[in-house]
Amino acid sequence: MAKKVALLQGNEACAHGALYAGCSFFGGYPITPSTEVAEVLSGELPKIGGKFIQMEDEIGAMASVIGASLTGAKALTATSGPGVSLKQELIGYACIAETPCVIINVMRGGPSTGMPTGPGQSDVMQAMWGTHGDHAAIALVPASCQEIFSETVRAFNLAEKYRMPVQVLYDEIVGHMREPVEFPEPGELEVIDRTAPSVGPEAYKPYDTSFGDVPPLAAFGSGYKYHVTGLNKAEDGFPTTKADLVDAEERRQISKVKNPTALADIESNEEYLTEDAEVIIWAYGSTARSSRYAVNELRKEGIKAGLFRPITLWPFPEKRTAELAKQAKAIVVPEMNLGQMILEVERVAMGACKIAGVHRVDGEPINPGQIIAQVKEVL
Amino acid sequence: MAYDYDKSIRPGKLPHIWCPGCGHGIVMKGLIRAMDTCELDRDNTAIVSGIGCASRLPGYLDACTLHTAHGRAAAFATGVKMAKPEMNVIVCGGDGDGTAIGGNHFIHACRRNIDMTYVIMNNYIYGMTGGQFSPCTPTGDKASTTPYGNPDPIFDISKLAIGAGATFVARTTAFHATQIDKLITEGIKHKGLAVIEVLDDCPTTYGRRNKFRSVVDMMKRLKDISVPVAAASKMTAEQLEGKTLTGILHQEDKPEYTAMYKEVIKRAGGAA
Ligand SMILES: Cc1ncc(C[n+]2csc(CCOP(=O)(O)OP(=O)(O)O)c2C)c(N)n1
Ligand code: SF4
User: Fold this and answer.
1) Does A289 lie in the same domain as A171?
2) CA-to-CA distance for A328 and A278, rounded, in angstroms?
3) Which of A166, A287, A377, B20 could make a disulfide contact with A155, Cβ separation 3.0–4.6 Å?
4) Is the pLDDT assigned to residue B107 strictly greater than 90?
């Protein structure tokens, strides 16, 4: 049987990816350019007995998503820059309470209302550092409609596996662009559910590290009574101020994502002609599409260019970026902001090669010509 | 025979954090009695709160308890109830939590008429942070941020709830301890959003600044200002000056939100 293929907008692909992953709850608040995710799910979720709720604001939406997740639902919200700013306190809540959930951020320019209908990539640092306090973050940056589908599935998987919020960021260009999207068959993409407790209610502790860095999570209403709080907590979920417990908890919440095994599991990059490259274009999201075109043009002119495209943006691909910095004469970082991920590239390159950015915040995409010009200048 | 609260309280979680004389403990005991009267299955009951002294309540009770962020309890609870409508959902918290930072979630929960019981402990002040004025601090009163007297007018929480569409609204005080559980019981039985406003006291940060010499004085005031709704109908406006109505202030039957959403699922052709 031929696979179902549909011409979908990025936002529609996201909604269908969420359904494939088993999403059964959406809590949102309308904002351009993300609203289509909500619109599709308001129609699709009730068909499968799932729930859609339009909350009174983005904070309420994020709260409803965490509440729903604690009952065992795979829960999603979708928004854009200003909405993400509002959600930040509760994204931190999901981090510390270790509650799986997925947040879609269809990026526009900013700060504040900025240019609602123009694309941007200016929330990439916010995805890591937006909420207060030390914490780990996972953020994925798909570059095509097909990839929005599959990365939304992966976002749910990572959220469930690591018990934390996972963000998917793409800009307005991919969000509103239409491309043929192939629907994977059930089972074709892996779908991961959170680990349920293997002990009975009497012995259950919601943060029991004897089960590893990611303790099993029971659903409210399934016979397990436990406490959830945004305060630093002990293994039983109740608040603690004991220095050793707080320290261990804070560190575990980062190491559960940053240990080598987890990093290998979470990291995902695409490389194009990097093997012999003397100049690396380090680009993500829709900007990587212009970058790929630029690589081909540069190659035609005999310039050994290659593309490194992170699909997992956070945790930052430190190891591979450092290797490429040693191999290449220069790294060029195009991004639709005034220089965000370039700071991370500089940090891990530690002066091993020249680094130059291509930045644009006028609501227009970065075109291959600009990238080519910067490559030639830097070489 | 003394009432057995222990079976509802989590082993090892007492003593609580509340100051001697704080009204929140009286409300907690009332809630326990109400949950017992309604024979709520605690495995299937979520108690959700925000941040503040009042919001520490759920941690002491043996149920699925969710201590959220300041002001957000109603929104978290809405997520729980929507995702699992078969759960009993109780929300509790302070006046600041519910009507200042959480005011938007509060009125929208009322408007949706989602089946939850919201117990709001109104001690007229931000207790936890040391006594700054809340939207319920009487005009003219002293708080740590109103050293010259509070210039702000107040919210009448119960009126706010009625205006926003809650279908069960009742008020009592920490002095009327036995009425607390009766009203919460009615609220739990009610299908829709029930608000039970309990006027209580914060001797530590409000009483001290506002010339109450003792907790007894504060309790006496709660007694003196209260007028049961039935009695109020026979009183003149003059007699009602400065008084607060207690009892069931509003009750009506209206479609409940999760039931309405079940209809949405039906119309979409889905199976709930
Ligand atoms: C976002 C945020 N803002 C402010 C605070 C500080 N804060 C904690 S509790 C509280 C007030 C609590 O007052 P109320 O809800 O009336 O409860 P009470 O302590 O009087 O029982 C405030 C302002 C916070 N925790 N989070
Ligand atoms: S500060 Fe006030 S509200 Fe808080 S516990 Fe003490 S008396 Fe109660």
Assistant:
1) no
2) 4
3) A166
4) yes
- The answer to whether residues A153 and A247 belong to one domain is no
User: Could you tell me if residue A47 is inside a domain?
Assistant: yes
Instruction: Give the CATH number of the domain where residue B210 resides.
Output: 3.40.50.970
> Is the Cβ of A258 closer than 8 Å to some Cβ of chain B?
no
Residue A69: other Cβ atoms inside 10 A: 30
Structural domain of B92: 19-267
The mean per-residue pLDDT over the stretch A56-78 comes to 98
Report the nearest-CA residue for atom 7 of ligand 1.
Answer: B129
Is this complex's ipTM strictly greater than 0.85?
yes
Q: Does A113 touch chain B (CB under 8 A)?
A: no
B239 domain residue, yes or no: yes
Cβ contact B179:B155 at 8 Å: no
Among A229, A264, A299, where does a domain finish?
A264
Instruction: Measure the CA angle with vertex A363, ends A360 and A367; round to 5°.
Output: 55
Question: For chain A, what percent of residues have pLDDT higher than 90?
Answer: 97
How many domains does chain A contain in total? 3
* CA of B266 vs chain A CAs: smallest distance (Å): 8
Q: Are residues A140 and A13 in the same domain?
A: yes
Asked if residue B257 belongs to a domain, the reply is: yes
CA distance B259 to A286: 43
- Chain A residues with CB under 8 Å of B267 CB are 46
Which residue in the set A50, A71, A227 is minimally distant from B65, CB to CB? Answer: A227
Domain of A122: which CATH number? 3.40.50.970
> Taking a contact as any Cβ pair under 8 Å apart, which residues of chain A between 83 and 102 contact chain B?
89-90, 93
Identify whether B11 is part of a domain. no
Protein residues with CB under 6 Å of any ligand 1 atom: B 51-54, 70, 93-97, 123, 125-129, 134, 202
Q: Is the pLDDT of residue A332 over 70?
A: yes
Locate A113 and state its tokens: 């209302």
How far B147 CA lies from chain A's nearest CA (Å)? 31
**Same domain, yes or no, for A231 and A300?**
no
Distance from CA of B65 to the nearest CA of A (A): 5
The identity of residue A215, as a single letter, is P
Tell me, what's the pLDDT at B247? 98
CB-facing half-sphere around the CA of A363: CA atoms within 13 A:
7
Residue B71: pLDDT band with limits 50, 70, 90? very high
Looking at the structure, tell me whether residues A231 and A293 fall in a common domain: no
Do the Cβ atoms of A228 and A97 come closer than 8 Å? yes
In a domain, A160, yes or no: yes
Q: Is A57 part of the contact surface with chain B (CB cutoff 8 Å)?
A: yes
3-state helix vs strand vs coil in chain B, percent to 5: 40, 20, 40
In a mutagenesis test of the A interface, which of B14, B82, B108 is the best target, namely the one with the most A β-carbons within 10 Å?
A: B82
Task: Indicate whether A12 and A156 sit together in one domain.
Answer: yes
Domain count, chain B: 1
Q: In this structure, are A171 and A24 located in the same domain?
A: yes
pTM of the full predicted structure?
0.98
- For residue B186, give the amino acid letter: E
pLDDT (0 to 100) of residue A53: 98
B270:A46 CB<8 A:
yes
Pairing assessment for the beta strands A165-171 and A312-314 based on DSSP bridges? unpaired
Q: Which atom of ligand 1 is nearest to the CA of B95?
A: 16
- To the nearest 5 percent, what fractions of chain A are helix, strand and coil? 40, 20, 40
Pair (A100, A60) in one structural domain: yes
For residue A92, the enclosing domain spans 5-182
Q: For A207-258, how does the pLDDT look when each residue is reduced to its tens digit (9 = 90+)?
A: 999 999 999 999 999 999 999 999 999 999 999 999 999 999 999 999 999 9
Q: Which of B149, B151, B155 lies closest to B124, judged by CA? A: B155
